[in-house]
Model the fold of this input.
Amino acid sequence: MSINVLTIIILITVVVSINAFNNRSIMERFMFIPYDVKHNGNHLRTFAHVLIHANWAHLAFNMMALYFLGNIFLNAPCGVYMGVDCGLTSEYGEVTGQFHFLALYVLGGLFATLIPYFRNQDNSAYRSLGASGAVSAVVFASILWNPTVPLNIMFIPINIPAYIFGPLYLVAEFFMDRRGGTGIAHDAHIGGALFGIIYVLIINIDKGKEFFEAIIGG
Done:
């Protein structure tokens, strides 16, 4: 694993999460609580929650998804892997490419809090944590960037083209959010995913056209 912005994000998140596992005060201080943000001005929670996780499985799942799709999105060389376009560093250069990745991740994590915030700003019992929203932004940016790359759901070894996997995932998240009772912030996943799509369209509008061409061609 080479040292780049992706590696640094993963290392910082793992270190802070492990410390939070062993120190409840870190967990309490960093957890996203919309009520506390609104009524006490504790805006640190809006950003810091992406650094902590509920348990080892939560941390591992997020970091694995971030690494595997994020690495392709950030570092893929041009014209080497079938179905994979040039990564951000190949497309824009090392500095600009890594800046785009960092901006996508940080702003994606922030954007992912918007729906939960407006839903729960007066609900003192609501709490959430984890990098899922930021990771969702990276995953969906990667899907839009590489619409034909094969993906699969963990424990189900069936490859699905990204342009099919993405919409199916969003539909499932929307359904589970409407149903409720899962203890998972599905609305944050949706918000992060939408930001990932928007970010790619801002930096390269042609990716939207290529995505629809992949659907038609597929």
User: Anything to note?
Assistant: The chain has one domain: 5-217. The first strand starts at residue 150 and ends at 151. The chain has twelve helices and two strands.
